[in-house]
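Researcher: I'd like a candidate sequence for this fold, 485 residues long. If you have to choose between options at a position, lean toward the conservative one.
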């Protein structure tokens, strides 16, 4: 009788997984993205314009708190690899981590009535806690994709479902955060220079209850992912498999090093531009930005759906390089757009988002390929540790991508709101905001494309690895059966 970790919904001989299970898996990243997009698009703006700390302090806090992730990410990856339950190695963490993930996120967007120094301490503590909880649930979640199927092509399909649903979660955040903040915070109509607008009365309360809603949804989605997925790639446990040895294998894994750098620059680009967007539209364009974000996310989802045929046409490595360069050029174009050229802003953003859609799908599928490569090369599988490196580059990229705009705003002498009233910004501040929206993230994307040139796993090597591991696992199964007989 098979264990709950392996049945039902068993994959067929080709490693194919049902559509229902792919959707169930993708709902887990929808849950994560309810927070991730909130942090990417609203966190810095929340700290400076709602919570009440300076841009420089927020930027430094983003960076310093990530030093802890340099320690806890590989620990979490190794711990997940060594977890042994009736439900598998990685799935149980979705249940264990869901509630801490929800609660710490809520606390991060709560504004205590404390002094500025007290608020800063509170921000350090809660931001550290929420990303510790994120690590505890997201590293096992990411590693789970590496054991759903042994097929690289099938994992690309799974990754497509994952990121379509992840971006759908981001779409919810981008579309509904501003309306929910207004709903929970209360509004009033104001008239300035003959123009009517709606002002939120209590953004602190609005953000808090908005995140409560997202947190409750996230818990439900993680539980659905746990219930609908199964772990199938089950390498034999080896007693000589230690954290030190796993780390040595990982550091000697050239493709993994390349992907970590690629992911780092990718996230730095996304977070820098995501953090800058709120300031760009609030102070430069003078209009809401929710629909702008939504348009880009919809375009990215469409691009993701083309990942599989594009991968078959170009190969993963070449497609990653091409898409990064295309997005870099389109993003750089914002440096020359006037504030009144809103249509052109939308056009460039939609095109860049569409071109960039396949990138996260490919990146995370390639991490699973690297886990296979590591097992094929060393004879030991450390899926959780490989994906912990992915999550670390994601979090470090988010830290730098969040910190750099904060530091830049301070350098440009950005003036935060006074008494809830937004201040007029100097021309050099506006030029700096445009730079953070355009040339800075474009530069990070070019760096990502350059790193990808050194990725050595091509499609032929992948087929060799898949066949070799299949034969090895079949041999281990036969050997184990004969020993037990």
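Model: Candidate sequence:
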């Amino acid at each position: 009788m098979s264990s709950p970790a392996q049945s039902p919904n068993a994959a067929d001989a080709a490693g194919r997984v049902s559509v229902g299970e792919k959707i169930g898996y993708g709902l887990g990243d929808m849950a994560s993205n309810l927070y991730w997009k909130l942090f990417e698009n609203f966190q810095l703006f929340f700290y400076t314009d709602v919570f009440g700390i300076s841009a420089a302090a927020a930027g430094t806090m983003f960076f310093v708190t990530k030093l802890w992730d340099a320690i806890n990410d590989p620990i979490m990856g190794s711990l997940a690899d060594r977890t042994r339950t009736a439900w598998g190695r990685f799935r149980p963490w979705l249940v264990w981590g869901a509630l801490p993930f929800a609660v710490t996120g809520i606390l991060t967007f709560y504004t205590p009535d404390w002094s500025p120094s007290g608020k800063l301490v509170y921000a350090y503590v809660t931001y550290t806690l929420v990303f510790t909880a994120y690590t505890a649930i997201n590293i096992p979640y990411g590693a789970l994709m590496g054991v759903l199927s042994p097929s690289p092509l099938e994992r690309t399909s799974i990754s497509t479902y994952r990121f379509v649903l992840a971006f759908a979660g981001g779409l919810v955040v981008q579309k509904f955060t501003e309306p929910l903040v207004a709903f929970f915070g209360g509004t009033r109509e104001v008239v300035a220079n003959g123009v009517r607008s709606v002002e939120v009365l209590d953004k602190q309360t609005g953000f808090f209850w908005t995140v409560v809603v997202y947190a409750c949804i996230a818990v439900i989605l993680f539980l659905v992912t746990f219930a609908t997925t199964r772990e199938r790639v089950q390498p034999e446990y080896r007693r000589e498999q230690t954290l030190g040895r796993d780390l040595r294998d990982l550091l000697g894994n050239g493709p993994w090093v390349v992907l970590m750098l690629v992911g780092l620059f990718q996230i730095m680009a996304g977070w820098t531009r995501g953090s800058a967007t709120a300031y760009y539209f609030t102070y430069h364009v003078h209009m809401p930005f929710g629909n702008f974000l939504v348009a880009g996310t919809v375009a990215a989802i469409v691009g993701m759906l083309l990942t599989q045929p594009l991968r078959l046409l170009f190969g993963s490595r070449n497609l990653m390089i091409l898409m990064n360069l295309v997005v870099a050029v389109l993003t750089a174009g914002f440096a020359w757009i006037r504030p009144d050229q809103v249509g052109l802003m939308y056009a460039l953003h939609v095109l860049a988002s569409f071109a960039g859609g396949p990138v996260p799908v490919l990146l995370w599928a390639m991490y699973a390929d690297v886990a296979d490569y590591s097992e094929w090369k060393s004879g030991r599988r450390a899926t959780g540790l490989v994906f912990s490196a992915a999550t670390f580059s994601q979090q470090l990229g988010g830290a730098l991508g969040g910190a750099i705009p904060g530091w830049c705003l301070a350098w440009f002498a950005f003036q935060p709101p006074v008494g809830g009233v937004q201040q007029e910004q100097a021309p050099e501040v506006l030029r700096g905001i445009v730079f953070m929206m355009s040339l800075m993230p474009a530069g990070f994307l070019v760096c990502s494309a350059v790193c990808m040139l050194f990725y050595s796993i091509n499609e032929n090597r992948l087929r060799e690895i898949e066949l070799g591991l299949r034969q090895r696992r079949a041999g281990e199964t036969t050997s184990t059966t004969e020993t037990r007989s």
